[in-house]
Amino acid sequence: MHETELNHEEFSLFRQYIYEKVGIALSEQKSSLIKGRLNKRLNQLELKSFLEYYHYLISDMSGDELSFFVSAISTNVTSFFRESAQWKWLESYLPLLIHSKQEKKLRIWSAGCSSGEEPYTILMFLQHHLSDFHEWDIKILATDISSKVLTKAIAAEYESKSVESLPKEIFVRSFEASKTAQGNYRINNSLRSKVIFRLYNLVTDPFIFKNRFDIVFCRNVMIYFDDTTRFELIGRFIRVLPQGAPLFLGSSESLTTHRENLKLIGSSIYQRI
Ligand SMILES: C[S@@+](CC[C@H](N)C(=O)[O-])C[C@H]1O[C@@H](n2cnc3c(N)ncnc32)[C@H](O)[C@@H]1O
Q1: What is the CATH number of domain 84-272?
Q2: How many other β-carbons are positioned within 10 Å of the β-carbon of residue 47?
Q3: Does an H or E element contain 124, and which?
Q4: 144 CA to middle of ligand 1, Å?
Q5: Where are the domains of the chain?
Q6: Ligand 1 centre from 135 Cα, in Å?
Q7: Ligand 1 mean position, distance from CA 131 (Å)
Q8: Which fold has domain 8-73?
Q9: pLDDT (tens digit, 9 = 90+) per residue, 79-102?
């Protein structure tokens, strides 16, 4: 395969564009990562330089190329019941939440949902802990900037190695009884129908939510964002959380701002005050 060089000017163009569009602050060291991960893409598109690819990227109004670029330079790693301490915490919070919901309606946002393990885990968790789960009106909004991971999330098919650590009872109640033609396990229709997947850029898309959320998950998404982008995004989450509602971040993410609106109540779990 022919390897195309990425010069400093080209890298600066990508850096500025990605920061404005996605909030990801690329350090100089990421130059070789971009070159390595995108050379194949240039070949596929039969483009001769990174400058040509830059123009291709910025002129793609569908956002598909941006989504491809972001997937190439960041990670979509996720898993069912990731960060077990947080699910343990949620177990103790659930009775309080349930008690406050007379109309049996829950709205939860999984922001940066990747291939769907997080929103489906939320449902598996609720199904396991609510004896009257089927009487509840539950909707999970699951959003991501990458159309590639969303396609996977909507298909809801997972390899056996991703599901083997799930407790048997949870597995049986959450997946279709038989394997897919490819030998994967598919989340059952009852759980799938409770998730609304949307392509959504947390940094640039308008925050036009009619209703507020009982819980927001934004875990392991802000790792690439700089302080300004993080500050703005957290400010937006605050606006869609009612008083007392929790915001879950990734365990390696902590907040240094917005202390007057958010209180640390668990492992990277903040409560709207
Ligand atoms: C590492 S995954 C985290 C998945 C899941 N939340 C978890 O903790 O297991 C990060 C996800 O954030 C998404 N992402 C990154 N920047 C984003 C942005 N500006 N808007 C929306 N999603 C973004 C990526 O596409 C990726 O799927």
Answers
A1: 3.40.50.150
A2: 17
A3: helix 117-129
A4: 6
A5: 8-73, 84-272
A6: 31
A7: 31
A8: Chemotaxis Receptor Methyltransferase Cher; domain 1 (1.10.155)
A9: 999 999 999 999 999 999 999 999
